[in-house]
Amino acid sequence: MRLSRSARILLGALSALILTVIYLPLAVVGVNSFNTNRNMVWPPPGFTTDWWAKAFHSTGLWDAVLTSVEVAIVSTAVALVLGTLVAMALSRYKFFGRQVVSLLVVLPIALPGIVTGIALNNAFRTIIGVQLTLGTVIVAHATFCVVTVYNNVMARLSRVNPNLADASADLGAGLWTTFRLVTFPQLRSALFAGGLLAFGLSFDEIIVTTFTAGAGTVTLPIWILNNMFRPGQAPVVNVVAVVLVLTSAVPIYLAQRLSAVQD
Predict the structure, then answer these.
(1) Which end of the chain has less neighbouring CB within 10 Å, N or C?
(2) How many domains does the chain have?
(3) In sequence order, which residues have a C-beta less than 8 Å from that of residue 104 and are 6 or more positions away?
(4) With pLDDT > 70 as the criterion, what percentage of the chain qualifies?
């Protein structure tokens, strides 16, 4: 389909407008991270790197970063195992209720975060009767991280010839040998892409974390929320926001490239 010149101009202008609305606020945050005024007046009266140095030497900030990394790594590992197992089961076997199971696996990422957070909070505190800790945050994050791994593995398995696994079994290989030498090499890039996306989602998550984190459990997004309106902390929060945007873009970009290679 070929577009007329006027249609291309209109489409280009609309795309530029949408991108401006999305990324201009991020650019303002980046500029404010160098603003000499701690009240973030605009336009900035001057520029300084003092806020970056203050953020680098903040002990509470680094503790929050380490907590977020720990949660993201563990929840991603759990999601890789569970998401892969579910995807392999649903792609290989046909049974009654298969579509319902698939819907239930994907549903957590489609629900509003506040609904998921409230549901998990009630489940942990009321039904199970456990205190909110770092472990409850990991379980909560794994519920939606599973979806990214599941979707990537399912998409990859749909393009894999199932006869390869059957041939391996006919040649005497066991389940583990077949998975290690036949299935896993074909899923490697999909697992890597799904893991990157899961890590990025977990690292940035705040809504579900707010409802499932106990006292003293502070991830980086919660640290940002707690310090956003404290006197003199706004410039440091802007610094952290800039770094967070840049680091979050890396796994998303890599996962996108890997998905393109798979296609």
Answers:
(1) N
(2) 1
(3) none
(4) 87
Answer yes or no: are the C-beta atoms of 65 and 53 closer than 8 Å. Answer: no
DSSP 38: T
Q: What is the pLDDT of residues 102-159, one digit of tens each?
A: 888 888 877 788 888 888 888 888 888 888 888 888 988 988 888 888 888 888 877 7
| CA dist list (Å): 101 to 8, 104, 144, 257 | 43, 5, 15, 29
Contact between 219 and 68 under an 8 Å Cβ cutoff? The reply is yes
How many other C-beta atoms lie within 10 A of the C-beta of residue 209?
A: 26
Residue identified by tokens 């994907």 is 106
b/e per residue 94-106 (b: at least 16 CB within 10 A): eeeeeeeebeebe
The whole domain housing 240 covers 58-262
The terminus-to-terminus CA distance of the chain in angstroms comes to: 23
Q: Is the pLDDT of residue 189 over 90?
A: no
Contact 163, 92 (CB under 8 A): no
pTM exceeds 0.90 for this model: no
The answer to the question of residue 145 being in a domain is: yes
Q: How far apart are the C-alpha atoms of 77 and 48, rounded to whole Å?
A: 40
**Structural domain includes residue 152:** yes
